[in-house]
Amino acid sequence: MPGEMSIRDIYRLTKSEVELEKDQVEYVQLQGWIRTNRAGKNVSFISLNDGTYFSNAQIVYDANTLSNYEEVSKYLTGTAISVIGKLILTPDAKQPFEVQAKEIRLEGLADHTYPLQKKRHSLEYLREIAHLRPRTNTLSAVFRVRSVLAMAIHTFFQEQGFVYVNTPIITGADAEGAGETFTVTTNYGEKMEEDFFGKHASLTVSGQLQAEAFALAFRDVYTFGPTFRAEESNTTTHAAEFWMIEPEMAFADLEYDMDVIEDMVKFCIDYVMEMCPEEMNFFNERIDTSLLERLNHVRSTAFRRMSYTEAIEILKKADVKFENNQIEWGMDLNTEHERYLTDQVVKGPVFLTDYPKEIKAFYMRENEDGKTVAATDLLVPTVGELVGGSQREERLELLEKKMKDLGMNLDNYQWYLDLRRYGGCEHAGFGLGFERLVMYVTGMKNIRDVIPFARTPKNLDF
Amino acid sequence: MPGEMSIRDIYRLTKSEVELEKDQVEYVQLQGWIRTNRAGKNVSFISLNDGTYFSNAQIVYDANTLSNYEEVSKYLTGTAISVIGKLILTPDAKQPFEVQAKEIRLEGLADHTYPLQKKRHSLEYLREIAHLRPRTNTLSAVFRVRSVLAMAIHTFFQEQGFVYVNTPIITGADAEGAGETFTVTTNYGEKMEEDFFGKHASLTVSGQLQAEAFALAFRDVYTFGPTFRAEESNTTTHAAEFWMIEPEMAFADLEYDMDVIEDMVKFCIDYVMEMCPEEMNFFNERIDTSLLERLNHVRSTAFRRMSYTEAIEILKKADVKFENNQIEWGMDLNTEHERYLTDQVVKGPVFLTDYPKEIKAFYMRENEDGKTVAATDLLVPTVGELVGGSQREERLELLEKKMKDLGMNLDNYQWYLDLRRYGGCEHAGFGLGFERLVMYVTGMKNIRDVIPFARTPKNLDF
């Protein structure tokens, strides 16, 4: 049908430099859901949202034109309608256009029990109606930005020739030190040998080891998929199911790793700023008034690089009362320490590097000093750790010894050791929690509000 | 370091119209893995692959230039090296360039036990070394095309404003008629109420129902994530874990659904042809000699649309002995019937539409005839069903009745029924098995060869 358009199309048209061809867009057909319906005696106004754009379209309808005026004026918030009408550009008004309805057709009613009435709902309440909340301003902005950020990630890596690899979700490997895992079974409570895979299977906590195998074939690869933790923690930053991006690069050291991380974070911010200006302005007005200032600062400054050892020295000298004031080399930094470094010392993102080997994972490359590993955490203001990365231990003997010392069963890892046996080389990678990135970019404070249907302890609705 | 390049970079340079600036590229540094090392007494040749490009770079080295000539000439297949050398363009030779080594440095040895010696290995053998097989021509081509196809999917949908939605992997919903599921637990064999989620949890078989919730907010959405079937079937087309793309569109009927499917398939083929010409030529030479002809045909023809009822009439009249020769309206078509329709009748892709409601899922929209539903399967030559889609039942009463008749527990689906209660509208969607698309585009015949680390019964290695 000629004139069938989305609200996004019309906003784009009104913003474009192109002179509108009157006969092309004089009459448009829109479909969408009523956000508000302000009915007057003869003239009424519908704010229509069709999900393609953050802003609504204003529909004007009047009793002289519409034969079903009475009926339409009773349509409640949430009702789905089709509109055919005249597109009127209103460059001097708040909204750049309105549609004068010639015809309004009902697609699907919503009655007064519709849970999203015209008022501010709490984020807690909206979590209970996760199937409807993307129809609100806040959650529609969040989930569009989430989608655009996913595209930013794919674009960033694919443009540089990285190969996207889908590492397995169900895995037989034990996750060393990565926390509790979920068991996957078809034979609940019965013998493991008779189970689907004939042995214990669990949900992956990381695709890194398999990504390494692909990096040593393709040089540059990345994963982007779901990972799982069965931790019984009810915090604002933990979920049982979340998405991770895990790039892995052969012939790369820690410095190069940090270069890529920094480029990626800046690219993602630029991308979402360009693609979602309405949503970003909304977040800056309603969710976190320092958001745009913070993100603009991050885009335009070089990330500081500081060794863990230097950070410890700074924290020791800090004129602050930390809850944990026992600052000593070898400790794991708490959130309060990380916040002090990003918010007070650096006033921006900082890569901490070269952590004590005891507090980091087995696969990280040991430095010359014998005490630290070539690892880095990217810490950013307000969110804390955004990315964790490291150069991987490529020296077979060192890696084997470390795994044995940790009591790992080397039989399960022969394939991983093969990557050092056969043409092993310097390589590095990192992990980015996707939800954490979404929170960082939107200013949202609870992970439950950036996942479409969040999974947390005792919470498996929808 | 100046001159540090990937083999992809150099191939691109040699193909570009731009005059090479000699001082920029005279000396290059490459890193990669030795595919072959043909050592002569004074002059030798290494075929180097760095994973960034399908083709190798030829490295020439001679005894007069290299102080470690003797050592280098002994490097075996699989060894990782760095090369600094002079880039020589050879436009008249088979390879467009070679690199005359000035320096070759060892990064990581591979010895004679390296499982990928220079010979043709069977695909079966390569499955056993899934961590090394992306280093072979065939599997490197497969997994690069897989990656590029994933980007094609994201590009196709995002350019049209579709919102990417990550539907949950762990789910509490029963999967109606979608086959066996995996149970997810932290409390193997103990009480369900004490389990992580406090109730039975399983791995998703489809994100469609949740995607519908998002379509009724954003209009156009798509999923792209892993799905699972615990079916004990050892066929060439089934895996326990595979990736699905599930677009869902509000204000869309079955015709529109088919339009999008057809556009998507054609876009994906175009995209991969443009981005991976070397890989596609390789598949056409080594895997399936009719591949390019078939794909080119698909790109350039309109897909036929034929009702199930018409297909049954054609099959009844067919002058062929089917194994199942009992052709009657209401039956599920077997592969042999589908093949006959695509390969003999249509000689190309065909949408079958309007199937008997008894053989299709509960959420498909019932047609006026009361006997069929607005469903479609896209059948393509050699692969069979590539996509399955339908218009969804948006009429609350009809949907509720159908679910009750099937004995479904409506308590679990109130949120899904809400989508019909509140501003429900005509909507449609489809599911595309990603591995099936990869097989279709590459000509590979076994799903185990298009998944990085395949999961099948009793197979959980890596």
3D architecture notes:
The structure is a homodimer of 462-residue chains. With 462 residues, the first copy, chain A, is α+β, with helices and mostly antiparallel strands. Chain A is built from 14 helices and 16 strands. In chain A, helix 5 (137-159) packs across helix 7, helix 5 (137-159) packs across helix 8 (277-286) and helix 7 (254-275) crosses helix 9. Chain A starts with 6 loop residues before the first helix and ends in a 20-residue tail after the last helix. At the A-B interface, strand 1, helix 5, strand 6, strand 7 and strand 8 of A face strand 1, helix 5, strand 6, strand 7 and strand 8 of B.
Task: Outline the secondary-structure elements.
2 copies of one chain form a homodimer.
Chain A: H1 7-15, H2 22-25, E1 27-38, E2 43-49, E3 57-62, H3 69-72, E4 80-89, E5 97-108, H4 123-128, H5 137-159, E6 163-164, E7 170-171, E8 183-185, E9 202-203, H6 208-218, E10 220-228, E11 241-250, H7 254-275, H8 277-286, H9 291-300, E12 304-307, H10 308-317, H11 335-346, E13 350-356, E14 372-380, E15 384-391, H12 396-405, H13 414-421, E16 427-433, H14 434-442
Parallel strand pairs in A: 3-5, 6-10, 12-13
Antiparallel strand pairs in A: 1-2, 1-4, 2-3, 4-5, 7-9, 10-11, 11-16, 13-14, 14-15, 15-16
